[in-house]
Amino acid sequence: MPTAEVEYIREDGIRVRVKRSTKRTRTVNAAWREGVAVVSIPARLSRKEEQHWVDTMLVKLMSKRKPLPAGDDELLRRTQMLSARYLDGRARPLSVRWVSNQHRRWGSATASEGTIRLSDRLREMPEWVVDFVLVHELAHLLADDGHGPQFKALEARYPRRVEAQAFLNGVTWASDREGEVEF
After folding, report:
1. How many helical (H) and strand (E) elements, i.e. helices and strands, does the chain have?
2. What DSSP element (H or E) covers 94?
3. What end-to-end distance do the CA atoms of the chain give, in Å?
4. Mean model confidence pLDDT for the chain
5. Which CATH number applies to 72-174?
6. 102-110 contacts, C-beta under 8 A, 24 or more apart
7. In terms of DSSP bridges, do strands 107-110 and 36-42 run parallel, antiparallel, or are they unpaired?
8. Burial class of residue 139, CB neighbours in 10 A (0-12, 13-18, 19+)
9. Closest by alpha carbon to 42, among 33, 29, 57?
């Protein structure tokens, strides 16, 4: 068996997937994949060595992770700051929250209710990518033309728009989804 995988949730709430590989002989690596810490280890390691490497690699992964707004109140404040910076403060959402039921979209907005919802898959992404999705959703609160010219002009005010879109498309491609994830 070349690779065996075990996934579990630690006491601290972090989801971990351990991949044991017979092809991997000496190295250990780890990366975030859709909110899961994936730790790849040689198949020959004992359970005690596995636990040591999972703990070690999680410390490294967590140290590189930039904290994003944890709660909905913080997320609302961040969104208000982005509206002020890029949209002259005209977009005023009443509610901005993280959701776990958006698997095909990074975010969504309901202009009639003034609400924005962000997929919790964004929590592991760079702050500038999350900011782009927030600006994108804020633009929906102001523009009444879907993804038309008015909307695109508002969205284009975010300086890292092209880079963020490319990043999200790369994440989509890497996760083997077909097509582009909708906003």
Report:
1. 5, 7
2. none
3. 40
4. 86
5. 3.30.2010.10
6. 104/177, 104/181, 104/182, 105/181, 105/182, 105/183, 106/133, 106/168, 106/181, 106/182, 106/183, 107/133, 107/134, 107/136, 107/137, 107/183, 108/137, 108/183, 109/137, 109/138, 109/140, 109/141
7. unpaired
8. buried
9. 29
Q: Is pLDDT at 17 greater than 60 in this prediction? A: yes
Dihedral, CA of residue 23, residue 26, residue 17 and residue 163, to nearest 10: -90
DSSP state letters, 141-162: HH-SSTTSHHHHHHHTTSTTHH
Phi, psi dihedral angles at 134 (to 5 degrees): -65, -45
| Tokens of residue 175, six digits | 């996760």
Kindly tell me if the per-residue pLDDT of 174 is higher than 80: no
Domain with CATH 3.30.2010.10 in the chain: 72-174
User: Six-digit token pair at 163?
Assistant: 């880079």
Contacts of 182 (CB under 8 A, 6+ apart): 104, 105, 106
pLDDT of residue 115: 93
